[in-house]
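chain below, 974 aa
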Amino acid sequence: MPVREPNPQTLRAGTRRRAAPDRVPDLQARGTPKHLREELAALLGPEKVLSGISDLVRYASDASPYRFVPQVVVVAEDVDDVSAVLSYARGKGREVVFRAAGTSLNGQAQGEDILVDVRRHWAGVEVLDEGARARIRPGTTVVRANAALAPYGRVLGPDPASAVACTIGGVVANNASGMTAGTTRNAYRTVASLTFVLPSGTVVDTADPAADEELARAEPRLCAGLMALKAEIEADPELTARIRAKHTIKNTNGYRLDAFLDGATPVEILRGLMVGSEGTLGFISEVVFDTLPLDRKVSTALLFFPSLPAAAAAVPRFTEAGALAVELMDGNTLRASVSVPGVPSDWAELPTETAALLVEFRAPDEAGQRAYEEAAARVLAGLALVAPVASADYTFTRDPGTIAGYWKARKAFVTAVGGSRPSGTTLITEDFAVPPARLAEACAELLDLQDRHGFDAAVAGHAAHGNLHFLLAFDAGDPSDVERYAAFMDDFCKLTVERFDGSLKAEHATGRNIAPFLELEWGPKATELMWRTKEVIDPAGLLAPRIVLDRDPQAHLRGLKTIPTVEPVADPCIECGFCEPTCPSHDLTTTPRQRIVLRREMMRQADGSPVETGLLESYGYDAVDTCAGDSTCALACPVGIDTGAMMKEFRHRRHSPREERAATLAARHFRAVEASARLAVAAAARLGDRFLESATGLARKAVRPGLVPEWLPEIPGAAARGLPRTHRPAAAAVYYPACVNRIFGSPDGLEGPSLPEAVVALSARAGRPVWIPDDVAGTCCATIWHSKGYRRGNEVMANRIVEAAWGWTAGGRLPLVVDASSCTLGIAREVVPYLTDDNRELHAELTVVDSLVWAADELLPRLDVRHRVGSAVVHPTCSMRHLGDEDRLTALAGACAEEVVVPVDAGCCAFAGDRGMLHPELTASATAREAAEVTARPFDAHLSANRMCEVGMDRATGRTYYSALIALEHATRP
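prediction:
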């Protein structure tokens, strides 16, 4: 066992706690029962069975207010695995729930027995018929699918606000729609065919011409039962009319009984029933969508009204004018959105009664756009708008940046409002629809209902379709607050059904919290038909019990999760899961959401409980060590929660005083450390990869992997001892070669200048010469210490580099050009919290410029491109995303190559300085999809702008990555 393993107890909360009522009981501290674990491992392989208490807890939460801890988690790789699990469950009398992204808002992705992960191995898009259709696997996010369709000018119909995270399987299983889908572009209307696995294990491909014949042979009872139900429904004109009427507005409550009217055969009926079935009738393994045109001419406005009913009353005018989207936001929503980056700060001053409409027109061409804008102007002329804040602007804009900002605020509705809720409260997201003509009346009634029950909810929604969402916060650990919520729900459901004949779930699906009210909306006859449909398809009740159908009138109050207070940086988290797709470790250990979920469970536990102890023992590797610290989770989170920052703080807590002192000493004497590192790299070239791999492997076993890096063959040789000669007097900028480029040289076999030589040559060639200070050795951006949580060492180096940069740049008169994107980010932003007050003032005078920006904006316009290669693939780094200069990488690549490819699955490589050497499995997992895309075809150049990220991509792809500035130097060489 390694001798310097961190003590897990250092992450224990420092205060004594009272156990929460919904804590995981001590009996589950050992995880999955032994017999269940062993039987499933024998059936599927042990690597597909997650059974530790940490595994069960992190899968227990989704974006809903519910929490149910599974007995075991199975990571299915293919349909055979799914069929095997279903067969096992049938034989053992067990239950199965499928989970993909876990973005469901009503508990659909939670189960109390066998939970099957169908995200990890289930991603993929095949574009068909020049984009007219797309075959998509269920673990694919909507954003990923649309990215594949965009080059063809096509898009999916469903466009939920959670598109960045939600997956196609959930979209279809919930019949999700979104901002523009309404009742005509949703999954039910745009799914061409499905492949699914029935509870019996039978696989059905509805596109197969022989599907009905094969199903009749395999499942005669099922086929007969479906056709009998169809005949019974069609023989009842009143019921048939009722079913049709219920789906004239958005409705995802219960099963789609209109599938019996729309389908002529058992397979056609099943195709319709599976949409919106929430995993209770089968597993959807593949979907073929009919896609829609991607109209690229967009005009958008954000319009303010004096009240919510006034805004709602204007909606029909815009829909009649042809608006594709009309989104409603109340004052609470608008004010909470101030926490979203880019939203005007004066929204915080909006009066409570204010409301806004986000209106968007989309057209295929300029003429169509002009016609829409003229129609919109006529509508505006007849409205009584208000201008409650200075940022209010009533013009329709075509500016993509402004439009993106409007939509960012709207899509952040749940997370922004949820993030501003009182600490320790649970968030409920309700979703209903009324006939669009009665929307204003419904808004007024909803406001009155909230007031009567003491709630100050936030309201937003897809107003064009009569679909509203509202958020309530209450304390799930307080019985009186739960009673208040229950009373509100009773009155709300009666109001929606009896006053408006509306839908209790318009697009979020029934789930757990509306199941008790299903009969209230549909009546006893239709509801009983839904129960009989379930019995015909799943007679054993194997799949997702208590989801959609539940006869318990209190079912919506069961399993409500408490939200204990955790570290301030993470406390606003509502567990929505938007962060998960961008996280480098999401296929290896845990995601940002799961790191927070695990921390919250620790806080639910009594101090020192067996469950807390078990979670702490796993948390070090699963959460802290395998976090890349890239903070892209903060970019994906609408309210900017930076789980990476929390993990860095936890790393600091785990350090021994001796480790902290050693790190500080290294910072103070970094000149010697830098020289020693360069000498060691040079010596390594002589010793050979095999020897070094063996030596570091032994050291990692003796000490611990988190302290000793593993030697990788892709690590380049040493950089030259001296930097290029430059002159200060004529310099247009100060050039700061990052320490990584002062230690490591170019990739083996890459001919031409080093990166510092290329930057100097390019700048001179463009007439914008740079100067390299003589005393850069011994300085660093401080990221080494920051990423590892060495606080004092970080402070030492952060202050040193700012003081040095201020002197080099003559007090900020010259820009500081940095040649590694992570180092640019470090100096420009990450050092600031660790500076003294005086140095913070100096830092404010600096202009820190990434070398990509310098080359693209200052040099490229002054250079002549003389040599271009055929194709280049680029790797945008996570630091580029933070800096917002990814477009400069593609611009430089475009100057160097005829064709530039940005992989659709490009993401953080997780090499993160040396983390890819400390935990190579992290980089291997993080880069797997991008690497598969890159290696699927040849490229003439592989370009990026961060040396260690290039090493990580070298290892992932077997290709040689290098800086885009080196490529530009070659392309513009006389």
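The chain has a mean pLDDT of 93. Residues 764 and 770 are 7 Å apart (CA to CA).
thats it, cya
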